[in-house]
């Protein structure tokens, strides 16, 4: 008998320890929902002491909107038989009246000690799980936006290709210095700005990979700062270190980063102020605390005189969908962070409340010099036989006219299968093509990537140029897929002539 009592006592102590040290909240209530016992986790959950909980109705910790459903469930339990592990989720309140989501599991038991039915409640805070679910939903939405944005950008770049191609053709027939030439130049610049907008759309898309080249960061800042701050009360104070080396970047994507940071700085100073922009050379060593590979970088800093960001908020500033009044909302800074990271760079933020905030963007220095801007307007004529693979009829017609103007003989293919057939026929007839220009994506047909892999089987020395209005791995690393060079839509007559000249001379990108 004594042994039996000892065993019971040991079991009771074991139960008490499990009850006390359980990681989740555990409550015992009567059938009316009045709290009889509570463990430490439950007290912590509601931000009160255990003794304060005893005697309180559990419903007082339930959000007002959930009172009716909670009482209805409690009534069903009271009126029914033994209930085991009934589970549901609802929002509860701490003593500070802060709401948080909880998973509730309730069971009815009749303990031998008290002899009356009781309810035992397991309470689990599911705040983190809810956050994860919300982030997954946002990620799904973002993926959908990415697919939509990629499609829109692709179509828009095809439209711009027709406009820009015909504009540059018209300029070639117009007397330099005439009013008509001036009007056409203004139109061309407007199309170039629209092209930058499509690059922003492509950043949402999965394929928004950077197409890098050597670029002067000082020139990029000077070209875009006035545009980003047009109509604002702020002014820019720009200072660059002398002999600043070019950086290896995608100018469209980094323009988006710069524009976003400038607009954020402007919004932080609604009454006006000064935005300081600095750039300097920087060598990152093996022991650097920055998450960068050792090497040479340019550090670009954009600093405002706004109210600053609190130390609690600062670590979250690049989180998706996190926002502050001063620094915009949604995905702006997240996209900036993503773009810079894809470039092998880094973006950091420092802020002092009431004194302002500064963002520093670290970009890798290019191993080559920037191309002379004057060279971009050089029109290079040529001769040879070009196979143009393009499924959009308007684009096909425009590029055909551009190639003909440049001096090339052109044959057309609507998809990859037709391009492979025409190429094979030309080889057999001893009248081979000198160059193939292949659109990357073809609706309902073989695209450029697969077409070139088939062409290489026919002719390992095929010279193919990949063209697309959608930034992808084939554009960012064209040699990997067998292409000689790339030309991203929309492109000008001069760009087309220069790329063809490079390829005809056997120079790979």
General description of the model:
It holds the Pfam family HATPase_c. There is one protein chain. The chain has 3 domains: 113 residues, PAS domain (Beta-Lactamase); 153 residues, Histidine kinase-like ATPase, C-terminal domain (Heat Shock Protein 90); 128 residues, Rossmann fold (3-Layer(aba) Sandwich). The protein is built from 14 helices and 17 strands. The strands form 4 sheets. It has a 5-stranded antiparallel sheet. The longest helix has 46 residues. The chain is elongated.
User: If you compute it from the alpha carbons, what radius of gyration comes out, rounded to the nearest whole angstrom?
Assistant: 33 Å
The global form is elongated
Largest sheet: 5 strands, antiparallel
Helix content: 40-55%
- Structural class by sheet pairing and helices: alpha/beta
Poorly predicted parts: 325-330
The CATH topology of the largest domain is Heat Shock Protein 90
Instruction: Report the portion of residues in β strands.
Output: 15-25%
CATH-level-4 superfamily name of the largest domain: Histidine kinase-like ATPase, C-terminal domain
Strand tally is 17
Overall mean pLDDT score?
85
Strand order within the widest beta sheet: 2-1-5-4-3
Organism: Formimonas warabiya
Enzyme class: transferase
Catalytic activity: ATP + protein L-histidine = ADP + protein N-phospho-L-histidine
EC number: 2.7.13.3
